[in-house]
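To: structure subgroup
Subject: Chain for Friday's discussion

All,

I'm putting the inputs and outputs inline so they're searchable in the archive.
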Amino acid sequence: MLACLGAAVAMACEAPAGATNRMDASDPLLVEVARVALTGVDGRIDHLAYDASGSRLYIAALGNGTIEVVDVAKGAVASRIDKLEEPQGIVCLPDSKQVAFTTGGDGKLRVYDAAALTKVKELDAGGDADNVRLDAKAGLLYVGCEEGLAVVDVKKWERVATIKLAGHAESFQLEPDGSKIYVNVPDARHVAVVDAKERKAVATWTLGDASSNFPMALDSANGRLFVGCRSPACLLVLDVKDGRRVAKLPIGGDCDDVFFDAQRKRIYASCGEGVVSVIGVKSADEYEAIAKIPTASGARTSLFVPSLSRLFVVAPKRGDRAAEIHVLEAK
């Protein structure tokens, strides 16, 4: 168990922070079990990735120009990759024991040995290279960029194609047992549906009265796509068959990450307003906003790790408050 993530952060652990605005139960849904200090990290924080084999959490400290590598078992920063131009997306490749990340400032994809943290490869990935997703079966990595989606062969580490979209590709999800890729394109105020085999967009779903659609999660078993929007602050539930809107629910402001907890039938949306909004899933067509978990102002990026039942929410430095990770346990 992580408990307070080891003696290194024992002083940082506080009383558990339970849910606020809970409507249907007295027990908290997420309990804060630890905080991990990110000493010397300034500016905006972007995406995270978890390497189970090494029990490492990688954090893209965009404003700091670094990748922070956290030893999850010890609850402390173990290493750092520095002198980077706006690190953004990160993905772990367990088969090759590598970690790959994008740097939006120079449009690069960098590949490192996960254990030694030495660079293996560097290649162009498109302007403002951002989110990354791995299709392990196909041996392909997809990178969201200004042009759309860059397609990278992970064995040769070569960019093999670019799937053109109507704007910068933000968060996207790969169909686990199919060929569809669902992509948020906030510039166009729609979700693009990409056929990975044909390498082109085959449909676009407009979002109506919602926009600034950045984060996304997928419930593939029930065919539901969860799209986080900032204007207004809401979560849209779409049917993946045709993009039909199933539900629209209120969430906190400035949302940047959304995750589906299949085991507990919940959706977690981390929001820069300083909360994690929790949506309950009653069925494929029934959803309910059930809680807001307090975090910290600006803490809008996160990572849910199902195997640990942990949601890692990163708060950037604000004034006298240092950057830190809030570790929340799903109950």
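Points worth raising on Friday:
Residues 181 and 294 are 32 Å apart (CA to CA).
The chain has no helices and 28 strands.

D.
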